[in-house]
């Protein structure tokens, strides 16, 4: 069994807990999906910083330009940046996946003001914690974001790639299939959300997922410590995702009317 298989085996309990999370059964109405998206959009946003951190590490983004150490990995990262930062929506218009997600939220009536205010504060130079305080961000959502930026701050490519691969890309296809099933059961127009989810499943499941595992193998090589740190970060990433799901599920439960 190779080291990737060993990591996958170690992560199985956490992945099972995530894929079978009670949050999915709570997504029974369009109102529930709104609550989910209003928190999940922050994970959609901070994913781009993970990706950009990898781009900074594995491609040349400074001048004067020099060749990347691993052209195959550089190509993979640049392809994902192209897809995430400037994909095309269902109308053929260039948009980032973050912007497509905001459009999907608007279509179903979800509140985009908190995330837009948060990102605007970041643009004006506010720290993540200050922007989160002004936005009254949920504690679990802020912890999720802070973990992302703690990994980025390590400035170690294998750790960033681990959070990216095992905490995000590797789990997105399974996770999003669950949500699509719930959204299609509601008569509300979710066409933009369905397009967004299907686009992610197409890219992450068929292309990005397998390539990201190759990236991990290349970054860790024969370094046992890097493999151990990769597993540790992967476990923490999934644990933070589960905690985020716990929080969202609780918000949905609290929003539902009490049966008399």
Fold blueprint:
Layout: H1 3-19, H2 22-26, H3 30-58, H4 71-85, E1 87-88, E2 94-95, H5 97-108, H6 113-123, H7 128-135, H8 139-153, H9 157-169, H10 172-184, H11 191-220, H12 224-255
Antiparallel strand pairs: 1-2
Helix pairs in contact: 1-12, 3-4, 3-5, 3-8, 3-9, 3-12, 4-11, 5-11, 6-7, 8-12, 9-11, 9-12, 10-11
Description:
The protein has helices spanning about 5-20, 20-25, 30-60, 70-85, 95-110, 115-125, 130-135, 140-155, 155-170, 170-185, 190-220, 225-255; strands at about 85-90, 95. The protein is mostly helical and about 260 residues long. Strands 1-2 form a two-stranded antiparallel sheet. Strand 1 (about 85-90) and strand 2 (about 95) form a beta hairpin. The longest helix is centred in the last third of the chain and has 32 residues, at about 225-255.
